[in-house]
């Protein structure tokens, strides 16, 4: 990657911020990362359509970061809004960590912005859909602080992911996780999500796995309602 492209990628992330529904100062934050090719506005609209605009909380503000455009190998190098580049969409691929780590560090900057506003690390949850969920696993578990939780919807990381390598020598209290997958997903295969959840559990993570029958590479009302309840449990008022 050229110096110019690297410099462009390390600028502060654009973000869409949805304040808590009560109007009071928020006491917790959820960071929701969109999937590849999507936008912050796009994923927020998708959630609003699914649950009729009520993906909000009285004490939690939601931050939707926006991935920059960068060349994406699975699209033959075309520019796309993606969190990182990868050789292929496959659980057996090798991660392109030089790409992953640039964005991981930028998301850590975003987390630190929330901490500077008075939100403790344990009151911050990060997660996302598809590639956003994979990025959340990297940002959440490859970090010097323990967050309040991590969620991954229709997501995977490769079998030899740096996420798992980091957890082998984890010195902190690891955040719990929820992994949710549809059994009819043709892009991110169901068994990849199962493997991520099982590996996290084997490494000592309190990880909940949820399967949705018939769900393709998509989000469902039931899934988002379960996610809302999980968030409230992890980040109570």
TrEMBL record:
GO BP annotation list: negative regulation of Golgi to plasma membrane protein transport
Keywords for the protein's UniProt record, in alphabetical order: Hydrolase
GTP-binding keyword on record: no
Coiled-coil positions: none
Domain Phospholipase/carboxylesterase/thioesterase positions: 21-231
PANTHER family, per database record: LYSOPHOSPHOLIPASE-LIKE PROTEIN 1, LYSOPHOSPHOLIPASE-RELATED
Similarity section: Belongs to the AB hydrolase superfamily. AB hydrolase 2 family.
Protein known as: palmitoyl-protein hydrolase
Organism: Trichoplax adhaerens (Trichoplax reptans)
């Amino acid at each position: 990657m050229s110096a110019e492209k690297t410099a462009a990628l390390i600028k502060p992330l654009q973000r869409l911020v949805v304040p808590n529904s009560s109007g009071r100062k928020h006491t917790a934050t959820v960071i929701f990362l969109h999937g590849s090719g999507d936008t912050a506005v796009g994923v927020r609209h998708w959630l609003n359509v699914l649950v009729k605009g009520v993906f909000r909380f009285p004490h939690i503000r939601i931050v939707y970061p926006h991935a920059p455009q960068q060349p994406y190998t699975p699209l033959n190098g075309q520019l796309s809004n993606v969190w990182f580049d990868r050789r292929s969409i496959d659980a057996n691929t090798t991660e392109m960590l030089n790409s992953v780590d640039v964005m991981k560090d930028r998301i850590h900057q975003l987390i630190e912005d929330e901490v500077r506003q008075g939100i403790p690390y344990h009151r911050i949850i990060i997660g996302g859909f598809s590639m956003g969920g994979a990025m959340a696993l990297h940002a959440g578990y490859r970090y010097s602080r323990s967050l309040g939780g991590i969620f991954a919807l229709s997501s995977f990381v490769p079998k030899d992911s740096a996420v798992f390598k980091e957890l082998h020598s984890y010195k902190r209290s690891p955040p719990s996780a929820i992994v949710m997958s549809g059994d009819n997903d043709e892009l991110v295969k169901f068994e990849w999500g199962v493997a991520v959840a099982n590996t996290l559990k084997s490494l000592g993570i309190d990880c909940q796995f949820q399967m949705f029958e018939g769900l393709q590479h998509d989000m469902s009302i039931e899934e988002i309602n379960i996610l809302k309840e999980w968030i409230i449990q992890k980040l109570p008022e």
